[in-house]
Amino acid sequence: MLKQQIRCREISEADIDAIAELLTRGFVGRSREYWMQGLRRQARREVPQGYPRFGYMLDNGGAPVGILLLLYTARAEGGETKIHCNLSSWYVEPAFRNYAPLLTKIAQKHKDVTYINISAATWTWPIIETQGFNCYCSGLFFSIPALSRAKAGMTIETVSPDTQAIEGLALSEVELLTRHARYGCLSLVGRTADGSALPFILQPVRIRKGWIAPPAMQLIYCRDIAEYVRCSGAIGKHLVWHGKLSVILDANGRVPGLIGFYTEWRGRKYFKGPHQPRLADLTDTELVLYGP
């Protein structure tokens, strides 16, 4: 029997095809094109200097046998730049599972980085918590914004991927909206009666339960949940034309001012590091780059 030559190393762009094959084998129901689209997006996006573009892999004589995708993002908050890392898809071939701790150890080595896990399976929650992660989002609120009363004078504008400027928004927010529009999100601007501009990003999702998969939207970004509540009536009427009735929000309980229901059966999210993530900001995460 040949001796296994296992090492943990950073993924390079030359590894993409082999990584996509491994992920396709590891995640039943996800096509190879699903993974290739996300990996191509990772290849093109901006990454903070000094951090890996794709993540890490277990290399067995040149072939990937384990993978942990990482999405690093620099966020300007409170006058300083904070580094967040979305711990994304993790898979190790069964014969190499005893080497899996190498991936998690190297992936969480930066003490100044805030690591987030936004797609933890229910059965992994106790494991994640023993690794030092804390829950910052305990569930989801399913809102029906069309049932909210639209504020007088409120209008909704759709932002196209090639928009250059938006009155009332900083260039950084315009770039955020257009970048996510290119990812297939629905980027909107709520315009109040006094002309104020409120940015929103939503993503189409399907909530599956058995054979039923009602269409809905996930709130990816807004400055504050209160701004979504304020604009919910106008957003709901706008979404009706897109065939969407529900907008799903990360939440820690019922959201005052919205019609809908809250559940803790799904949607729990974790973080580990110096800065607790806020609700209503899933920008540049796996949910956007790879899709629901």
- H/E topology pattern: EHHEEEHEHEEEHEEEHEEEH
Strand content: 25-35%
pLDDT averaged over residues: 92
Oligomer state equals single chain
Q: What does the main sheet amount to?
A: 7 strands, mixed
- Rounded Rg: 20 Å
- What distance lies between the first and last C-alpha atoms, to the nearest angstrom? 41 Å
Question: For the largest beta sheet, what order do the strands appear in spatially?
Answer: 1-2-3-4-5-14-6
Strand element count: 14
Describe the structure.
The protein is an alpha+beta fold and about 290 residues long. The chain folds into two domains: about 5-140, 3-Layer(aba) Sandwich (Aminopeptidase), CATH 3.40.630.30; about 140-265, Aminopeptidase. Helix content is about 25%, strand content about 35%. It contains seven helices and 14 strands. The chain has helices spanning about 15-25, 30-45, 100-105, 125-130, 170-180, 225-240, 285-290; strands at about 5-10, 55-60, 65-75, 80-90, 115, 135, 140-145, 155-160, 185-190, 195-205, 215-220, 245-250, 260-265, 270. The strands form two sheets. The chain has a seven-stranded mixed beta sheet. It has a seven-stranded mixed beta sheet with strand order 8-9-10-11-12-7-13, with helices on both faces. Strand 10 (about 195-205) and strand 11 (about 215-220) form a beta hairpin. Helix 1 (about 15-25) packs across helix 2 (about 30-45). It is globular and about 70 Å long. The mean pLDDT is about 90.
Task: Describe this protein with a few key phrases.
Aminopeptidase; seven-stranded mixed β-sheet; 7 helices; 292 residues
